[in-house]
Design brief:
The protein is of the alpha+beta class and 259 residues long. Helices cover 24% and strands 14% of the residues. The protein has a four-stranded antiparallel beta sheet. Strands 1-2 form a two-stranded antiparallel sheet. It is globular, with a radius of gyration of 24 Å. The model has no long low-confidence stretch (mean pLDDT 86).
Length: 259
């Protein structure tokens, strides 16, 4: 006897939903993998940049009686010249001539897209804004800073309040006199000063008092001996001072001071 019934074809609703769930899971996994690959590529660029800039600083120092590239200090501002004044002194050693600009790609970290509003002198409601430090003239168009604290105690006045600050670092220090070149920072991504992280915000630990600093944030730094590392930065719990105001505990991989 001939069977005229037709077999059912196509997906059932449940099968279609299962397929959609699998596709969504695979897409999410792929996006995660691509995001991690992109972050690693950006970090690799930053490591390469700092390695080249580190070499340029050492070449400047060799031609300047072993001096560090310390910027000119003004009465109004000493933070910015100490941290960013190095670029104008050594940039010709890495092939840059003329005025600095955002086109100085060697000094631009591709992950430098999110920073505290205070860098830009604007009152934002959010703690962070999507702007790049390497686009800011005050920092000489650089994502990277020199460990330029000059170990001089200064008194800052804000209204009736006074605060004494001694900024440690290599400002006006002969680089050959650094006792531990393998762990003394020479240059760093700007977030290392606070710290926060461009590359891995998930590395943030407890938050500092202003809400822009996080213990154990991971940043790329270069050292006096020339090597470059991606390391955790230390912040004292609820300390008003940023991470570059003091050396970390011995368990960390770096220090700011030359001794």
């Amino acid at each position: 006897m001939k069977n005229d019934s037709k077999s059912a074809t196509g997906f059932t609703l449940i099968e279609l939903l299962v397929v959609m769930v699998i596709i969504a899971a695979l897409a999410a996994l792929l996006l995660t993998i691509l995001s991690r690959a992109r972050a690693k590529a950006q970090r690799t660029v930053c490591e390469s940049n700092l390695r080249q800039i580190n070499l340029g600083v050492r070449m400047y120092s060799d031609d300047s009686n072993d001096a560090s590239p310390t910027g000119a200090i003004t009465n109004r501002d000493f933070f910015t010249p100490l941290l960013s004044g190095y670029k104008s002194l050594m940039k010709n050693y890495v092939g840059l001539k003329g005025a600095s600009s955002p086109q100085d790609k060697l000094f631009a970290c591709p992950a430098d897209i999110l920073n505290p509003w205070m860098f830009f002198g604007t009152n934002y409601s959010s703690l962070y804004v999507r702007k790049s430090i390497h686009d800011v003239s005050d920092f000489d168009y650089s994502s990277y800073v020199f460990n330029g604290g000059d170990n001089i105690t200064r008194t800052l006045r804000a209204g009736t309040q006074t605060t004494s600050i001694t900024l440690p670092g290599l400002g006006n220090v002969k680089l050959s006199s650094v006792r531990h070149p393998e762990r003394t920072i020479l240059l760093a991504e700007a977030p290392a000063l606070f710290p926060y992280s461009w590359h891995d915000p998930s590395s943030h630990g407890y938050r500092g008092i202003s809400g822009t600093e996080f213990n154990n944030s991971k940043d790329v730094v270069s050292f006096v001996d020339g090597h470059v590392s991606y390391i955790k930065m230390f912040l004292k719990y609820h300390d008003r001072g940023f991470a570059f105001f003091y050396n970390p505990p011995a368990s960390y991989e770096y220090q700011w001071t030359p001794d």
